[in-house]
Write a structure and sequence with these properties.
The chain is globular, with a radius of gyration of 17 Å. It has a 5-stranded mixed barrel with strand order 1-2-3-5-4. A hairpin with a 2-residue loop joins β2 and β3. The chain has 9 helices and 5 strands; from the N terminus they run βββαββαααααααα. α2 packs across α3 and α4 crosses α6. It starts with a strand and ends with a helix. It is 46% helix and 22% strand. With 199 residues, the chain is α+β, with helices and mostly antiparallel strands. It folds into 3 domains: 63 residues, OB fold (Dihydrolipoamide Acetyltransferase, E2P); 71 residues, DNA polymerase, domain 1; 56 residues, Orthogonal Bundle (Helicase, Ruva Protein, domain 3).
Length: 199
Amino acid sequence: MFDYFSGIIKEKNPTSVTVDVSGIGFKLFISSNTYEALPAGGPVQIFAHLSVQSAMQASEVKLFGFGTREERQIFRLLCTVTRVGPTMALRIVSGGTTAQIRQAIASENLSALAKIRGVGPKTAQRIIMELKDMVKGLIIPAADTGDSIATNIPTDAIMALVALGYQRPTAEKSVREAVKKVSVSATTEEVIKKALGQI
């Protein structure tokens, strides 16, 4: 629903930031990396993720904010892991740079992930098992430009297929094939359409 907010920082602390967008204040929960990158005040652009979690009595709606698209992408990938919700995902991305988190998953560095507060060996093992192929095959380093599809599109396409009811391995495989066959300027919708044709 929200891609990013452009506005004025009204309040900033280590766990959240309030951004005034045309007179409306949006509170976004942030990682320590984003906290350090954001200015104390003034104009800012922050990438957003809307989380809706249903409980027995009511639904909880939260906005999360990120200084870069890549950090948001890692966060979204982590949210797809079994028993890893947005709160833990934010804690994980706060445990290192996006490159460090990506490298820890790709290289199956269990200890690097397990030492993050609240993660532990079992959760770290689950993260590696469910995401190692995705970070190796789909996340494009930010420095890679000009001849690669936008970094967030493959992940968004996979999440969309999973939401449609397809199993993760099937979604991953079809999106990988789709990315090879579309232009570098393809939209998420075009990748999804092509991926559906691979299933």
